[in-house]
DNA sequence: ATAGGGTTAG
């Protein structure tokens, strides 16, 4: 054994593989590559291969490069590519497409394009593999317009013949930005060419439609493939549809789909079951989730870490932290490893249940285990600190987040603004907002809703008005919440006329009022002893099938008891009381 | 005889 090899053993600590490599006559055939199961194996093999004389063929090196890429070790793969280059292994379109893919997946599409430049210098004609990787990279960096431009340019200038994968990559990008219309148009375009859409094309769009709650459109597309019969739906297609149904709480239809797929001889996989488990847990229906887990085990599928992460979420949502913790500790016993997502779920649970001390303890436990907190972790903790009024600690963590190289995202910004508003620091929130200027973060309707709500709550309805006009000027669309917080602000200041005007504007702006709008407006009217429209509003609520919440109802009872409102209103009110409130003892004696 | 695509976390 030479010095280099013994050093390798020490460095990479995998003597079994290395000795195996040394005693196998250095062959790098397919069966050899099969035995590579982790990065160390692959790196050891690469080192060994590069010492052989003559050097193994480009093909062997590329196979290994591919393997490392498939393990998602993109930066290692890029490093090996560079080493291959310095060894003098000739670069071809195969290794080049892998290298470009790696750059793109590392969010370094710029470097991918630099490699594209070197393709031209090396007389390697870039092909559809390379261009697809670049389009994918642009999409990954949210540069959808650049991706579209490149895609169109390639077709127009006939720089490469697009194939189904390239179309699918572009369609995936469009779907990422909810541009289902263009995605569908591309699918129709494909039908006109000899590059027919496949199950990937359909699944991508079906999934996107489900995510955008366009479940009927998703099923229309699904029926198309079922009738067509030339493309068969697979487990992923079904899983996406089941996921869409679950998000709507259409449990019966979801279980019908599960049955239907099994009738078609498509077995649901762990992912399919996880979608169901997750949907139940998000509704706090942990019993149902546990039942699904049992079915999954009966079918011979082993629940994985994702399954348990959902279950933890479910128990946290119900505030059953002891149970959540129990699941958390059972993970290790099952031979699974809790990841950042697992910790994030539990941290979220502790924060939402206002046990910030426990959250802090778990946060330290996670970093102690070498897990790197991500942006979700920081957002969760920052929100947790704000919730209990510890805004100084929130600020500290926000700074630490920067220091740890985790870039705040749109959620961080929302959390900080909301946290400041709720901690009586509206001025601070406003100056942060102004500091951000016209950035992308400030083109978020949720941010406006938070601020309008914040300023409204401290009576600064004039500032709310300016903010509202500002978002309109920016071309942003106010949503129901925007209107609700504005109306609430007006009501609080007794500006009922303004409130009513905005309320009437909702319908004509294509944003019909929801139950909250009615509750806010009714409370405003009652508190200001302005009863003219009350009966009409209650009637409208009934027509729309809305119900009253406990606090509005209680306000009504007070007003009736004080003789301010006529008892004839009771009948209408009775219709608007949801079943859960009917058991309220205070309501028993007013019939 | 070496490259590419679709389903789950705040």
Give an overview in words.
It is a single chain. This protein is an all-alpha fold and 591 residues long. Among the domains are: 178-266, Alpha Horseshoe (Serine Threonine Protein Phosphatase 5, Tetratricopeptide repeat), CATH 1.25.40.10; 410-501 and 509-513, Serine Threonine Protein Phosphatase 5, Tetratricopeptide repeat (Alpha Horseshoe), CATH 1.25.40.10; 516-591. It has helices at 3-12, 15-23, 30-34, 39-51, 58-70, 74-87, 93-105, 109-121, 128-140, 144-156, 164-176, 180-192, 199-211, 215-228, 235-247, 251-263, 270-282, 286-298, 305-317, 321-333, 340-352, 356-368, 375-387, 391-403, 410-422, 426-436, 445-457, 461-473, 480-492, 496-508, 515-527, 534-544, 550-561, 569-575, 579-582. It is globular, with a radius of gyration of 30 Å. The N and C termini lie far apart (94 Å). It binds one DNA strand of 10 nucleotides through helix 5, helix 7, helix 9, helix 11 and helix 13.
Sheet bearing the most strands, described? none
Query: Strand share of the residues?
Result: under 5%
The tally of strands reads 0
What structural class do you assign from the helix and strand content?
mainly alpha
SS element count, helices: 35
Kindly identify the CATH topology of one domain.
Serine Threonine Protein Phosphatase 5, Tetratricopeptide repeat
Distance between the termini: 94 Å
Low-confidence region ranges: 1-29
Q: Could you state the CATH homologous superfamily of one domain?
A: Tetratricopeptide repeat domain
CATH class of one domain: Mainly Alpha
Helix fraction bin: over 70%
Organism: Helianthus annuus (Common sunflower)
Family: Belongs to the PPR family. P subfamily.
Keywords: Repeat
Protein name: Putative tetratricopeptide-like helical domain-containing protein
